[in-house]
Design the sequence.
């Protein structure tokens, strides 16, 4: 079997501003060979999870700048798990203090990427993490 | 659905269980040049059919990048008003440079949505190449979306979009030039039809919501007429024939180039020993080799 390309949902939940960051991330992951479903702005956690379910993605990437990252990441994680999507990697970026990222990491949220990181690091992280989950048989 | 999207051989088995429940959903292909407003129109159409209580499915295809193999699937972002509607299921997929395989995967995905209880399944593809247009035509009805920014109607003719449609929607009617496109198109279709009935041409604006009630009414009418006249069944049987042919083609190709048949080996060996060999002569040799191998194994 040839391995399927990694499928990622990129969305920007919350009420703040523009989606330039999310679009840049979506394009970068596409250039890294991934199939990126662009979910757009202002999505509620429920809508994000419904999209992840319908699209059967390997990864959900959220771009959050509003400071509401704690609630949003935890809520999306909780709803993903409830929808049978516990094996889906939840990652993302924004302006997220290290202590918060660490706390989220303890709650099943993957690595989060701040303004200092490159898009290459994000793509490499996703590849490694999905590769690991596929090898472990958690995902096909 | 993921088995279908990947054309996984295990899907054939799963499909047997779907088979008894298939054929209920009406399938509508939506194609047209990039950026014509296909996704925006699909959302508007879906909202109207939802109000009429229909259960809906969408398969939306966007191109894979020939460079990275990745894809940006951005159709559903135009359908965000349906994000939380449990009566609508939207699945995005990439073309993955699949020769003929695109049609296979979209047919299979549409089958899953049909079996899942959808009344209507819409299939959005980009009308750039013949294979994408074929996908949109492997349906009960095909809508071609054009727009005033899409160049002249000659370009649409060149792309093969002028033979494909049961209904033309000229979108962006809020912009100048849409009426001219619609008039030119109607003239051309009249000439081609030579007095016989030809596909309707409707003006619409997805952003303003204009012309969409009429579009839905026309699509419902065309589907009902096609069913009543027997054309729906005839089209389905022609589609089924093409689909089986494609599956057989794929099977034979896989078998012929598999290691057991030895063609791949023979090809490389022949070219290495005689780089100037006529490609036609070598191809004939290989076909004979394949035929001989089949006789032996049967
Ligand atoms: N002025 C105007 N713009 C429109 C209309 N419908 C869609 N658009 C705009 O046209 C652009 C493309 O719309 P889409 O619905 O994504 O078009 P599409 O045909 O699905 O595009 P692809 O899937 O990329 O080929 C967007 O910027 C829309 O906002 C319309 O009726 N009028
Ligand atoms: Mg589209």
Sequence:
């Amino acid at each position: 079997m040839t391995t399927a390309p990694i499928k990622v949902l990129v969305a920007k939940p919350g009420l703040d501003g523009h989606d330039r960051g999310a679009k840049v991330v979506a394009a970068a992951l596409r250039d890294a060979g991934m199939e990126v479903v662009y979910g757009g702005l202002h999505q509620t956690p429920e809508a994000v999870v419904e999209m992840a379910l319908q699209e059967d993605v390997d990864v959900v990437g959220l771009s959050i700048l509003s400071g509401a990252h704690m609630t949003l990441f935890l809520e999306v994680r909780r709803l993903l798990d409830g929808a049978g999507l516990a094996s889906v990697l939840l990652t993302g970026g924004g302006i997220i203090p290290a202590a918060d990222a660490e706390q989220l990491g303890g709650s099943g949220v993957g690595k989060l990427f701040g303004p200092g990181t490159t898009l290459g690091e994000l793509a490499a992280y996703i590849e490694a993490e999905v590769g690991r989950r596929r090898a472990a048989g958690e995902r096909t | 659905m993921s088995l279908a999207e990947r054309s996984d051989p295990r899907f054939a088995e799963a499909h047997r269980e779907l088979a008894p429940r298939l054929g209920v959903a009406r399938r509508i292909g939506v194609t047209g040049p990039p950026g014509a407003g296909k996704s925006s129109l699909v959302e508007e159409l879906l909202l109207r059919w939802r109000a009429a209580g229909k259960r809906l499915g969408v398969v939306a295809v966007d191109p894979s990048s020939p460079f990275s193999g990745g894809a940006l699937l951005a159709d559903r972002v135009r359908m965000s008003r349906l994000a939380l509607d449990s009566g609508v299921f939207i699945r995005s997929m990439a073309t993955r440079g699949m020769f003929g395989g695109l049609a296979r995967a979209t047919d299979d995905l549409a089958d899953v949505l049909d079996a899942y209880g959808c009344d209507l399944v819409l299939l959005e593809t980009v009308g750039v190449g013949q294979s994408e247009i074929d996908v949109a035509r492997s349906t009960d009805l095909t809508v071609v979306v054009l727009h005033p920014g899409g160049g002249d109607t000659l370009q649409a003719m060149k792309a093969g979009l002028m033979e494909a449609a049961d209904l033309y929607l000229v979108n962006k009617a809020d912009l100048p030039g849409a009426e001219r496109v619609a008039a030119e198109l109607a003239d051309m279709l009249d000439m081609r039809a030579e007095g016989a009935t030809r596909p309707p041409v409707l003006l619409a604006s997805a952003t303003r919501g204009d012309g969409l009630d009429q579009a839905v009414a026309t699509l419902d009418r065309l589907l009902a007429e096609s069913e009543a006249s027997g054309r729906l069944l005839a089209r389905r049987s022609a589609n089924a024939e093409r689909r089986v042919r494609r599956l057989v083609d794929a099977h034979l190709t896989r078998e012929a180039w598999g290691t057991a048949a030895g063609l791949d080996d023979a090809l490389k060996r022949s070219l290495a020993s005689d780089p100037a060999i006529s490609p036609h002569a070598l191809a004939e040799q290989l076909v004979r080799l394949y035929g001989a191998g089949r006789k032996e194994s049967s």
About this structure: Chain A has one domain: 7-135. Residues 11 and 39 of chain A are 5 Å apart (CA to CA).
